[in-house]
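Next up, a chain.

===
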Amino acid sequence: MARYTEAVCRLCRRSGEKLMLKGSRCITKCTLDKRPKAPGPQLGRRRRISDRGEQLREKQKVRYSYGVLERQFRKIFAEAERKSGITGENLLVLLERRLDNVVYRLGFADSRAQARQLVQHGHFDLNGKKTDIPSCFVKEGDVISWHGSSVKSEYFKTMSASLASKTIPGWLNLDKEKAVGKVLSLPTPDDIEAKYNIASVVEYYSR
């Protein structure tokens, strides 16, 4: 499956803000703090970004944050349009419902990229069945647990010891002793606390 293979710090520099793509390392060792300018040749005079450019930048910011490729993002946006309600809010809810994001929100990984890799390597069970599809959507009542052989790994031991200090969103529940998560309800825009101008993303695809 195709994936982004360049330095992820370039994505933060291109967006002009921290997207927390490396988890805690973005706090302690952030390239954006040392090199705040966008990557590539630096022009003598800064050009004004057009409205279309602002929409593109906001769309890319959301896409980079969730680690979704353009083709996947378009499919999720199309699904959000088909649902009743506000398209932008539907889009964020669908992105939050991805299994790799839920694994990240439960504190099982430091970043969504790490969560995606853990899922792809078959370390998780969804409702008792092993799954390796990071893009699958969870539903209310779904249970996310570690696969039997994965609980013996050194990573699991280190991760489980850190769960006590993790803050879990209200739409999820985590048994910190067993390291088992459950989807209590579908997320709402208030639960997500997104810092994106999601209306600009909708406008970008509406042209």
About this structure: Residues 9-39+48-95 form a domain with the Ribosomal Protein S4 Delta 41; Chain A, domain 1 fold (CATH 1.10.1050.10). The two ends are 29 Å apart (CA to CA). Residues 59 and 201 are 5 Å apart (CA to CA). The first strand starts at residue 124 and ends at 126.
